[in-house]
Write a structure and sequence with these properties.
Layout (H helix, E strand, L loop, with lengths): L7 H25 L9 E3 L1 H10 L6 H6 L10 E3 L15 H33 L1
Antiparallel strand pairs: 1-2
Helix pairs in contact: 1-4
């Protein structure tokens, strides 16, 4: 048996797609609670974690960075955004218009990630032929 890292890109893309899906749920929940008094918007920090993990190996190729990536550190964390900030009297900090824009951008990102995963599997299929 040989040791191969052929699924490293797929694993990273899979984690990113999962985080994007979770962000979609959070943004939808924020929109649903836009009129709930005291509600604080929630978001997820996966992109910052991935960027931080990639910066650890600044002077390496992307392939090497992905190979050396510690997947256990790529755990998206949900957080309440700007908990001390509210521009409304009811202490809610959700702006439905902003959330809608973020939701649309996140859906595009998710679609791109799914396309990238499909391309990686297509590449594997092509190599196996």
């Amino acid at each position: 048996m040989f040791n191969s890292n052929i699924f490293n890109y797929i694993n990273v893309l899979d984690r990113a797609a999962d985080a994007s899906w979770k962000r979609n749920e959070l943004l939808s929940n924020n929109i649903a609670n836009a009129t709930t008094p005291g509600y604080k918007r929630q978001d997820i920090d996966f992109e910052e974690q991935l960027a931080r993990a990639m910066r650890r190996s600044r002077f390496q190729t992307l392939d090497t960075k992905i190979d050396n990536l510690n997947m256990s550190r790529l755990r998206p964390k949900v957080y309440n955004d700007s908990t001390n900030f509210s521009y409304r009297l009811d202490k809610n900090n959700v702006d439905a218009d902003t959330e809608g824009v973020k939701l649309a951008a996140n859906q595009l990102k998710y679609n791109g990630l799914i396309t990238a995963i499909n391309q990686e599997f297509g590449n594997l299929k092509m190599v196996m032929r």
